[in-house]
Write a structure and sequence with these properties.
Strand content: over 45%
Number of strands: 40
Shape: globular
Oligomer: single chain
Helix content: under 10%
Largest sheet: 24 strands, mixed
Radius of gyration: 26 Å
Amino acid sequence: MNFNKIILSLVALAGLQTMQAQENTKNILKEVIVKGFKTVNGVGHMIDSKDGIIYAGKKNEIILVDSLDANKAINNTRQILGRIPGLNIVETESSGFTANGIATRGLNPSQSIEMNTRQNGYNISADIYGYNESYYIPPMEAVSRIEMVRGAASLQFGSQFGGLVNYVTKDVPKNKPFEFITSQTIGSYGLYNSFNSVGGNYKKISYYGFLQYRNMEGYRPNCQQSQVSGFGKIQYNHSDKLNFGVEYSLLRNKIKMPGGLTDSLFYANPKTSTRARNWLKSPWNIITAYANYTPSESSTLSVKSTFLFSSRSLVWRNEDGGAAATDDIDLTTNAFVPREVGIEKMNNSTTEIRFSQNYSLGKQKSTFAGGVRQSYAWFKRQGGGEGTTNSDFDLSISGDWGYDLDFSTTNLAPFVENIFKVSKNFTVTPGFRFEYLRSTAKGHKEVEGDIQITDEVRNRTFALAGLGLEFKPGKNTSIYANISQAYRPIDYSQLEPFGISSKIDPNLKDSKGFNSDLGYRGTIRNYLNFDIGGFYMAYNKRIGVTLATDPITGDYYSIRKNIANSVHQGIESYIEFNILKYFNSQSNFGLSIFNSFAYVDAKYTTGEFKGKRVEAAAKTINRVGLIFSTSKLSTTLQVNFVGDAYGDASNAMSSEDPVAGYIPAYTVLDWSAAYKLQNFAIKLGANNLTDKSYFTRRTDEYPGPGIIPAVGRSFYLGFTAKFQ
């Protein structure tokens, strides 16, 4: 396969091209001219608009997963998403969660709570406003590309400060009645991963599905995990203008959590486990029905309706006593202490309608895109139940729940954006989103022996606006700028009672702010790909707990309120240079070096911790990779450096509080390779080559409390075959 064919296939896969057909008087066929951003190593940028969504003026990236050398069997986030500048990753997957959380620009990466997380364009988190945690993402062997848009995504997708991450699953194989792909991987710490997919076409019906099974013994004692992920899609192609279908995603898992560590335990032996009776299950189910209608070449209409019904069940030796408390048999009773049980049931129903229209304005073509999102989420949280003294997964309890709470969120959000093409090379894109939000919280919670009743109803509306500018000095380069408002609504946990003498401020407000970008990106022939820019983010009215004085009695009490503002600013840079293609554009070999770099200055600007660094915000994140490729062989060595951070806003170096303390900088090396021969491939590699002991998170509750160590050196070997 020559270089031009590779470029065309990659560009077509990511939708990075626009096509202009020109009639050739000497030939019957039309000449197709491909324009836009392109790259041979799988990182690119979206065109101005695609599938009814506007990307003009926004900082965005596309990762082509199949083109990466990475340990996809365990969804190694460092390797797969590591080229996104400034991506902060909290590595807890091996210690109790099913997916490593991500964030950018110094935001909190825990369970990706600051991100709008989607699969094939629809939300897959529990409740993006009340409980925006991601327990499910599709296996990377099933993903064709990952789309990321920074904070400017708040207008088209939702209000999150962190922006959008969209995992697009592989599509139906073209013009094939049947295709079967199997991939088997083994690795360190008892890893076995089996991924199998089928797809094809029959007349007007197309189908695709996969089933993944993964089992691991784990890096530390007591961290075994097994999971099954599945996906099925069937689509009816009524005509070139209309198709509709249905998708179903599932996750079934069972995870043992080894607990967190104190600083002294971690530095003595990071493989130590303080818990042997902690278990987690988080079954996930998502059903989506959709229809896509293209009445003309200039118009698109899409409708997606999604129903998510999922849960999380937890039985564990709780946080009492912190990370230093061991889970031992009580010599007086000759039994373990009873564990704590918690069950959360998560449901949401969402419908999103999008419409786009290209139209002529003066001598240029402009684009309108708009739509509406309607959702209703209901969430039941039961916890604090006294469980058994057993060691297996057992959710039975004695007596009543310590808390039994019901939450709901109703949301309605129309949105519009328009690309005004001022000239051939310059676009102006204003946008607007209006949000109606209703949150309720009802139930009871036992706090220090007293039963507290909560009955909260909050209604509010928000208007978000944004403006994007983009100037293209050349065919494959552009200067972009954007400013967009964002907010983070009050979540369910912030509406819970939390102390006998504590209060929730009745004037508690959602966090608000904005994101802004200025950058220069593009490609030069087939040897250079770059995106260099700066950002400024204001994150106002952060919610926290502080002390207040009763004006009548003079007594102190705790109050949850809006306590501080923060500013996040810095530089994000991605540069990829293919050395061999620079000297010979027709070379059958590739030797590339890439650098993904970010400097993030994230500090509190008001409140008690003014001048302190925002928790979990590393100042410097730098990833450098070397890639060698031929038509059959590819290999990548990646060096990951992440600067130091703090566990909480006080920036304490150490504390009795398990979440507070220093998080040291670390450097990790990953190497992966793949050899392909027709319909077969062998893959192998090593993660954390130098066996670096490090951690990315401190927790006050599960899967801790305390330090959660990351995984040490590991190896993997796999085999893939395609049959058709």
